[in-house]
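Dear support,

We are seeing what looks like truncated structure output for some complexes. This example has two components. We would appreciate it if you could run it in full and send us the complete token output so we can diff it against ours.
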Amino acid sequence: MKAKASMILWCFPEGICTQYRRAAAFPQGSSIPAAAGWARSLPGSILARLAPHVAEPRPCRFLRGGAGPSPDSGAMAGRNPGTELELGWISKVYVNRPAVVRHAEQIKKWKTVKGNWQAAWLLKAVTCIDLTTLSGDDTPSNVQRLCFKAKHPIREDLLKALDMHDKGITVGAVCVYPARVCDAVNTLKAAGCNIPVASVAAGFPSGQTPLETKLAEIRLAVEYGAREIDIVISRSLVLTGQWEDLYEEIRLCRAACGEAHMKTILATGELGSLANVYKASMIAMMAGSDFIKTSTGKEVENATFPVGIVMMRAIKEYYWQTGYKVGFKPAGGIRTAKEAITWLMLVKEELGVEWLTPELFRLGASSLLGDIEQQIFYHVTGTYALQHELAMA
Amino acid sequence: MAALAALRAPPVPKIFATMEEGPVPGGINPGEAWLESHGRSLGHFVDGTWLKPPGRTSLECQEASTGRTVAVVPAGDSSDVAVAVAAAAAAAEAWAGLGGPQRGQRLTRLAATLEGDSRGTMGALLALAGGRPLCRTLGADLDLGLRLLQAPAGGAQLGPPGLEGWTPVGVVAVVLGGPCSLPALLWKLGPLLAMGNTALVLSPPAAALPLLLLGELGGEGAALPPGVLNILAGPPGLCQALRAHPEVTSVTFLGAPQEELQAVVWGSPCQGPRLGGPRGGRVVVVVLDSADLDSAAAAIAATAAAPPALFPGGGCVVLAQDAVLAALERRLRARLGGLRVGDPLDPRTEVGPLGPGTPPPEEVVQEAREEGAQVFQAPLPPLPEGGHRFYPPTLISGVAPTSRCLREPAPGPLLVLLPVRGPTEAVAVASALPQTAAAAVWAQDITVALDTADRLPQGLVWLNSLDLLDPSGGCAGGAADTDLDEALREFGCPPWEQPPKADEPLSPAVTVDDPGDPELAQAVAAARGAAPRWGRLPGASRARVLRGAAAALAGGHGTPKDGDSGDTDGSLQRALLRWAARVERAGGAVQEVPGGRALVTRRPLGVLGVAWGWPRPLALQLLLLPALALGNAVVVVAPPGGGGAAQRLRKALVAAGLPGGALTVISGNSRGSGSRLARQHPDGLWICGGDADCEWASAVSVPRVWGVPVGVLGGPGQDHPPGAEQELELRCTRPHCLWLPGGGP
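Here is the complete output from our reference environment:
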């Protein structure tokens, strides 16, 4: 137990270890403990499954959670390195569903923005969108179209009217299946723009594939040029309460991601309870996720406000405990500008205004952008656009 | 106005950088539009029309947040009161004669008017005048207000059970001390009108605007006939004119500073009108170690920002178990810091200004600081002119129960956080806090939560929630508060009520020494000790004691000695068996209410004082029986005749298992014994005969005082008249409601 809970990260030849040592938050010399004892400490099953993948395991030990930048110091936290597995943080988790639902309803009902404020908030939402296409019939052509829309999410003349044309308004990222990463990366490179490509991986959407293939999928996606990886967790580990195994699995995924930022999809619609959502969020953050994300978009129940509130409360608690800010990404079923505003409002309410940046907040959506552009068109011109007046994604 | 707001709006890039929220213009404020349509100069609303007496000085109605004068109303005087009372009295007969179903329909129509187009106007006026944020006045408050109007309307429609033969009391005066929420107002007006009374509402200018709108809406669509609802604006001293008015049969109070108003009316012995009690107090929140701390903190902060509509201005006390104290405090600070303070007319505002006439709680906070407490105050955002009326959300921690912030409720967005070691201590501390109106328990552990909630003394307990209210689930929390059934009865005359007569002389006429205060104190203390032991017994156990006493009486062979006709023991036995059956069957109800379910039950009052002054000993026995059967401990002061009968009952009951302290009989004169009992602070006081006027005056501090009508006990040798048992049952108990949120679609 104790050994499993130790704070260890596999370092692959691509090496995130060196990178982290450069980060201010990670002092020199605290890494590279003796590898031998560590390797024995891994559960046999995982070790056996990993054997083909681990060429040269170089373990590197991270700081204990408590030693991160203190929440009060205001220091820029950098990437969340994760912590040791602290089962104590999830041993006493209680979530009262009716209270959370009521809280969500209040915010949804009363918190709105109008006028110029609405336009600005919608543009902020645009910069936080992970513009997504995750279909069986994705081809280079529609991915290409998506990439151009990502670069020009709002018509130039509308941005000019709002004096926002020189602010580099693009979406946060383009999100595709691993097989389409190359298409997206090439298109964006050709278009000369620096929007990151995010790839779902790790057996998306069900997560019901062997760990080896999950890790291989992640490494390939990174190799293809994805700078962000949206992994899915094994819901079975949550539902059966195998938190140690879940921690190890996400840890390994994080290591496989290397420099790419990792968003961990909890698939909250399949976790059974809000308490499980909270616990899974905590484990995912301890294991080093840069973002936690609600859903794949393929579950029956997707991003709901109560689920979002619970995840954000976990993020806040993790921040209080470690000083690291973890991002939040609701995804699935977000279609209207009004919903997007409510999500921004919820984030501001629960986490604070500093979370309202693409570095810490993303909206996973495909059709949302169209509605936002429509609303901005209305704000600028006073009338709604005809279908042909706005470019399709 | 909207165009102006657009002009002042900062450019989009700036907002994009700061992500501020900006104002919500929402067009022209409907409240202002309504005032404008009346030229910002209103009158009294009397007899279905505007009454603008010529040559009267006018009073200014101010906006709560800025102090800006938004309208003027005439300063009412006694001639206006006379006109309004005459109008109300003239309308009374027709309104009462309309019949319940018709009245119910009219009230439903009023509710529909309020729910429709006027919703925005009413919400805006309440926010404008009272400073309560729009998200409350337009949201939860209005929904609750409508329910409070519809519930008695439905009652009138069906004919409330147990109220057959009840008649209206006539003209009821509602005296407002200051702005009050819509639910608080309708909580009085709904039952009052449903029972067939006509109303005269006296309001200071600060609270008058929403009321005048309500009066006007009552006339619209022919919801209420002219004269049924009359609104008078005027200075607080105006209510003196009511006291002497012979046609006002009942006076009831509302709004914040009630004490002075009550002093005005109660200052001299009250000549007839029945007096309704005030409502209010603070909310105690118990947070145990299995609580969802984030949700608890969010709910507590919302309650601190705007207290539940029916319990305004009392503040909020949080009792947190040691294990979660630090975690909860951190969350509370974060939540309080995130509350939006500002213009109450912005739908996003969570904390409005202090109500008009409410002093800032600065002194209380300063005193706490000097005592070494930690005081956290959220920073106030830049506020419009007149911003001194705002007070920042404040959290006081590290104080002892001796501190002033716990001894007296402080208005404003004020939270006091106290550590407790466990549920038992939480119950003890919550019981010792003065002036509490409701309580909440936050714990996910169902056993601990239910056990703690059950032992709290407050009449309204929320489980894992705050601020859920509904007339069918219970709106009563404080010791003096009533549920809907009682609210209807408050404004009705029972068929057995008889006009107060001159004191009948006791037979035989003997003078005994009055009981000394020490003797009464001892008896009340004994009763306090016995009350929980007896009152917490299940009904079946108490019924067994009553049956035992009945059997013992059947075995004995006492012959009636005093003047009562008929066989005394036979009547008493019958009554014992009847109450035993009633108590055994007594239970509660599960009400389906918005937000979940409510367990509605009735609890014994605790210690009940009875001042007996009538000549019939059997009647005293019949009166004591329900009080004891329903779990109260009773202290009776009675002259020797009645005392003997009570002693006899006591002997039989104690032999059957009643705790000794639960019934104490003290010999004394009828005159003045009520006042002496009142000084011992019982939980309820019944006055039977005696010099009722001075008893009423001195009984202000007792939460539940009842001048027992002689008819409720039935004639000599008779049983209770129909409906009287239910009345007695309600008088012996107080409402208790436990909210269990959850479920629903």
